[in-house]
Amino acid sequence: MSGTGSKGAGEQVETPHLEAGHLGRGTLVSLSLASFFPAVGIALVPTLVLTATGNATAWHATLLAAVCVVLIGRPIIVFARRFVATGSLYSYISEVFGPWARYLTGAAMVSGFVCGVGGLAMLVGLFVGSFVHGRQADPTDLSPLEFPTQVVIFALAFLIASAIAYRGLDSSVLIVVGLAVLSIPLVLFITIASARHTGLQLATQFDFGQFSLGSTLRGVAIGIAFLVGFESSAALAAETRDPRRNVPVAIMAVPVVLGAVYTVATILQVPGLLQAGGQLAAGASPPAALAVQAGLGTTVGAATDLVLAAACFSSLIAFVNYGTRFALAMAEDGLLPAFLTRIHPKFHSPHVAIVSLAVACFTFISAAVFLVGDVASAYNALTTLLVYIWALPYVLIAAGAIVLTRRTGELRPGLWMSAVLGGAAMAWTYANGWINPPAAPADSMAWIAVVAVVVVLALIALSSLRRRGARQPAAAEG
User: Fold this and answer.
1) How far apart, in whole angstroms, are the C-alpha atoms of residue 53 and residue 58?
2) CB 258 within 8 A of CB 37
3) Is 347 in contact with 167 (CB distance < 8 Å)?
4) Are 308 and 183 in contact (CB under 8 A)?
5) pLDDT of residue 3
6) CATH number of domain containing 73
7) Within a domain: residue 1?
8) 369-377 long-range contacts, CB within 8 A, separation 24+
9) Cα-Cα-Cα-Cα dihedral sign, residues 60, 63, 68, 71
10) Domain limits at 260?
11) E strands along 60-149, which residues?
């Protein structure tokens, strides 16, 4: 990833490059876990899964979601142990299938990163807006959650996050992990206080007579949404020491560790959430409702808005880094504009890609909030869209792992079973959007996902043709 170029007679100048071997295993795993805002997952996953399943046995849907992601993780780490690349799934699929799979995966991941990074900025806006709204004298004034205020929050979030990512991985890792660690204790304190107040009610939570396949699958889809993109740390492989050993650990840490944490949090919180139904219906956030239910008062609950905003901001920084390394890989392959390959000579960051991603995401989510009307509804739709889009790369990589191991003569029945089950689960997540569509506006995301991938695919093909055409005259002159 480094090189030199001639500056004068006998004088060499270093070409700007990413810093190879810069991240150790502990740093990469910490960044990978912190990227998925564990505090936000602890705060929101139990409520959302409980709402989707409609019964007290919600924990099994959370657990099944983690299992599904672990199943799809096994095929991914087959590639991570063999190849070092900055394009994550896009780079991996290129090693197995032809150009069609590379184009298709690239288009889906471009759309997915815009949705994912934009969604994180939306969460920052949602929690900051909620905090401001809670401090207003007029509770009917929802302006902090509507377009004008949210655009200002989005702009500030992207400006600060991009500036941190611009200065390189050291700054990003320090802030991302620091904010994630600082945001967890308050949410854990509320969760434990709620469990102590209500008890675990295990007889009710483990009563499988309430089991319903349809409601469970809806809950599984919600759980998966909080783990989508768990393999994104693979985009830092070129900057990681011993990536073939360390990247797989960082990838699987997300569904294994956070999947277990969210399952335990669901068991601890469900009794309190059931008792706090009235407060939740009145608009209180889950942590605030649990805090009041446990006798902690409204101040503790209100403080979680800022804590969770900080957690989302830390994840925003991480995914700006992931997304821009992915864009860099596609640009180096000629599928995105060449200017995205530029590396800052001092900070060793893809600075042009960082600015470009921030501008694209800011424009996209600002338009979404303007059209939908408020940030909460826009975020719910965008999260659904992200899951639908990311299902395609997951299905392809599952098939790719089977093809890769068969091609090399390996007998891997356990891996193949994981790939089949994991790929089927991801395919079903999308198909279920047509069969059992969610409430509006998320109900339209199943077909919007197809449109988004097709549009980006056309743009990628156009960019590729332009760059190929620009290279031909240069080659002729040479």
Assistant:
1) 6
2) no
3) yes
4) yes
5) 44
6) 1.20.1740.10
7) no
8) 369/122, 369/125, 369/146, 369/147, 369/150, 369/151, 370/147, 372/441, 373/146, 373/147, 374/142, 374/145, 374/146, 375/122, 375/125, 375/126, 375/129, 375/145, 375/146, 375/150, 376/126, 376/145, 377/441
9) negative
10) 18-464
11) none
How far is Cα 85 from Cα 79, in angstroms, rounded to an integer? 10
Split the chain (478 residues) into runs of 10 and give each run's mean pLDDT. Answer: 44 56 82 89 89 80 92 94 85 88 92 93 88 70 80 94 89 86 90 90 78 75 86 86 91 94 93 82 74 80 83 91 89 88 87 94 94 85 90 94 93 94 91 84 91 93 77 56
Question: What is the value of pTM for the model shown?
Answer: 0.86
Residue 435 Cα distances to 246, 366, 388, 429, 459, angstroms = 40, 30, 13, 10, 30
Of 391, 363, 392, 367, the residue nearest 378 (C-alpha): 367
Alpha helices in 254-297, H assignment, sequence order: 259-275, 277-281, 286-293
Distance CA 391, CA 227 (A): 12
Burial of residue 437, with CB atoms counted within 10 A of its CB: 0-12 exposed, 13-18 middle, 19 or more buried: middle
Radius of gyration of the chain (CA): 23
Residue at 474 is within a domain: no
Total domains in the fold of the chain = 1
Residue 357: per-residue pLDDT: 94
Q: Answer yes or no: is 189 within a domain.
A: yes
Cα distance between residue 277 and residue 56, in whole Å: 13
Residues 6+ apart with CB under 8 A from 115: 364, 382, 385, 386, 389
Domain contains 202: yes
pLDDT attached to residue 2: 40
How remote is the C-alpha of 294 from its chain's centroid?
A: 31
> For 136-168, where are the alpha helices, taking DSSP H only?
147-166
Best CA proximity match to 172, nearest among 305, 354, 356: 354
C-beta neighbour count of 47 within 10 angstroms: 22
* Amino acid found at 14: E
Tokens (6 digits) for 344:
């800052």
CB distance 385 to 372 below 8 Å: no
CB-based contacts of 447-453 (< 8 A; 24+ apart in sequence)? 448/385, 449/111, 449/385, 449/388, 449/389, 452/111, 452/385, 452/389, 453/104, 453/107, 453/108, 453/111, 453/389, 453/392
What's the CA gap between 57 and 209, in Å, rounded?
A: 9
- Scanning the structure block, which residue is given the tokens 């087959």? 78
| CB crowding 287-317: b at 16 or more within 10 Å, else e | bbbbbbbbebeeebbbbbbebbbbbbbbbbb
